[in-house]
Amino acid sequence: MTSHVHVFEPREGGSIRISLTYDAPTGTGKTTAHTDTYHGRFVKLVPDEQVVEVVEFETAEPALRGEMTITLSLADADGGTEVLAVHDGVPSGVSPADNETGWRLSLARLAALVEAS
Fold first, then answer.
1. CATH number of 77's domain
2. Average pLDDT, whole number, for the chain?
3. Rounded Cα gap, residues 22 and 6, in angstroms
């Protein structure tokens, strides 16, 4: 996937809006045929400890609607950082397995980026 960050205001109450587009033509998007767009806000930001955001897909599909709360907790771990992502309120139309796979891939790419620098 590739991403386009439309809005990113990293402060409590700040807005976020991002579009993720599938590179493979077989990817099925929630907003358009190949794109997932979501918007939301930052609820809590604790430097080096926690990020809580509430987001919602931009979609006409009722099973994919609704706010999700994502809580990212950070902890020191053997010369690095452990990241725990907890999702509450994931819409019924989102497969838990696909959601987990997507987050695992994203976190692996983030780790590779951070470790390269």
1. 3.30.530.20
2. 91
3. 17
- Separation between Cα atoms, residue 19 and residue 14, nearest integer Å: 17
Q: How many domains does the chain have?
A: 1
Q: Which residue has the tokens 């996937």?
A: 1
- Residue-wise pLDDT for 59-99, tens only, equals 999 999 999 999 999 999 998 889 999 999 999 999 999 88
The arithmetic mean of pLDDT across residues 89-111, rounded, is 89
φ, ψ for residue 30, nearest 5 deg: -90, -25
Region for residue 107 given its phi and psi (left: phi exceeds 0; alpha: psi -120 to 50; beta: otherwise)? alpha
Number of CB atoms found within 10 A of residue 4's CB: 11
- Residue-number span of the structural domain to which 31 is assigned: 2-116
Per-residue pLDDT, averaged over 88-112, amounts to 89
Using only C-alpha atoms, the chain has a radius of gyration, in whole angstroms, of 15
